[in-house]
């Protein structure tokens, strides 16, 4: 599904290399977690995959179902089925959540050369998904993320993901600011959307999130590279002993 080969990334305006030859393969239908100490480049990886500016790819590639997404515009990546749950969801005053989602869904369809979803169909789909994810219908009418609590923003992110039906979801969960309840919401959302044709890359500093999402594969990232790969037990090892032992072992 997603194959990242020897990815090298530096800051655009500074001579600072952040990703230093990162290799990662995420198979179809699998949930992979990336853990790692602060500053190891986890967020940079998610930003570069999403097409956010400010970074320069100096080598390597990221192949999603046979196509190098690093050569695509952000919208094209979304059309190819990539979804990135942003660390800090933007607030869009004056734009209703429903309108925003419908625009996003139809932009994706248009980029794929598909017909737009009619408003009747869209309403039907969004109501069904909101119900499935236990999201209050009232939230759909409010302006995007404006005045949303941390938990509501997370719910909204999951709803966005459900509506766009991506094949590759990347979630970068910040080290701070995610309380236990919000973390559970993220986990429930991921678990509800897990499916044979959909892969997840869940990035997290702490093991806690992985108490609720059992990943198929766990990677440890340090200093711009994946340094160790294993099963769920690797996350437990980090919880117990921190990163020091693993980093010493691979050094
Ligand atoms: P992580 O998410 O693992 O904590 P980041 O990707 O946020 O790591 O950061 C990796 C390194 O790159 C850090 O040393 C960070 O300070 C630096 N970095 C990332 N983005 C920027 C930026 N826009 N400007 C300056 N330094 C940055
Ligand atoms: Mg950080
Ligand atoms: Mg980060």
What do these coordinates show?
It is globular, with a radius of gyration of 18 Å. It is α/β, with parallel strands linked by helices and 251 residues long. The protein starts with a strand and ends with a helix. It is 37% helix and 29% strand. The chain has a six-stranded mixed sheet with strand order 6-9-10-3-11-12, sandwiched between helices. It has a four-stranded antiparallel sheet with strand order 2-1-4-5. A hairpin with a 5-residue loop joins strand 1 (2-11) and strand 2 (17-26). It has nine helices and twelve strands. The chain folds into two domains: 1-81 and 167-178 and 205-251, Rossmann fold, CATH 3.40.50.300; 92-166, no CATH class. The structure holds adenosine-5'-diphosphate and magnesium ion (MG) (2 copies). One magnesium ion binds at residues 42-43. Adenosine-5'-diphosphate binds next to helix 1.
Features:
251 residues, alpha/beta, Rossmann fold, 2 domains, 6-stranded mixed sheet, 4-stranded antiparallel sheet, 9 helices, 12 strands, 29% strand, binds adenosine-5'-diphosphate, binds magnesium ion
Order of H and E elements:
EEEHEEHEEHHHEHEHEEEHH
Name the CATH architecture of the largest domain: 3-Layer(aba) Sandwich
| Secondary structure: number of strands | 12
How many helices? The count is 9
Report the sheet-strand fraction: 25-35%
Overall pLDDT confidence: 90
The ligands found in this model are: adenosine-5'-diphosphate, magnesium ion
Q: What name goes with the CATH superfamily of the largest domain?
A: P-loop containing nucleotide triphosphate hydrolases
Secondary-structure-derived class: alpha/beta
In terms of quaternary structure, what is this?
Answer: single chain
CATH topology of the largest domain, by name, is: Rossmann fold
CATH class of the largest domain: Alpha Beta
Family: Belongs to the ABC transporter superfamily. Ycf16 family.
Domain ABC transporter: 2-248
InterPro entries: AAA+_ATPase, ABC_transporter-like_ATP-bd, ABC_transporter-like_CS, FeS-cluster_ATPase_SufC, P-loop_NTPase
Protein name: Fe-S cluster assembly ATPase SufC
């Amino acid at each position: 599904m997603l194959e990242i080969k020897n990815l090298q990334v530096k800051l655009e305006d500074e001579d600072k290399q952040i990703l230093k030859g990162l290799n990662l393969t995420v198979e179809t239908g699998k949930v992979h977690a990336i853990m790692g100490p602060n500053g190891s480049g986890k967020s940079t990886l998610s930003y570069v995959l999403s097409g956010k500016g400010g970074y320069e790819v100096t080598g390597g590639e990221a192949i999603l179902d046979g196509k190098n997404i690093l050569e695509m515009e952000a919208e094209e990546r979304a059309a190819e089925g990539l979804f990135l749950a942003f660390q800090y969801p933007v607030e869009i005053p004056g734009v209703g959540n429903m309108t925003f989602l419908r625009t996003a869904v139809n932009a994706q369809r248009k980029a794929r050369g598909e017909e737009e979803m009619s408003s009747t169909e869209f309403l039907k789909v969004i109501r069904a998904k909101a119900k499935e994810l236990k999201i209050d219908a009232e939230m759909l009418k409010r302006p995007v993320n404006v005045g949303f609590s941390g938990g509501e923003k997370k719910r909204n992110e999951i709803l966005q993901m459900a509506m766009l039906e991506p094949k590759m979801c990347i979630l970068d969960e910040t080290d701070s600011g995610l309380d236990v309840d919000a973390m559970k919401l993220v986990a429930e959302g991921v678990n509800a959307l897990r499916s044979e044709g959909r892969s997840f890359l869940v990035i997290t500093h702490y093991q806690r999130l992985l108490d609720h999402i059992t990943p198929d594969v766990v990677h440890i990232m340090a200093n711009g590279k994946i340094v160790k790969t294993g099963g769920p037990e690797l996350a437990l090892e980090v919880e117990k002993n921190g990163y020091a032992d693993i980093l010493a072992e691979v050094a």
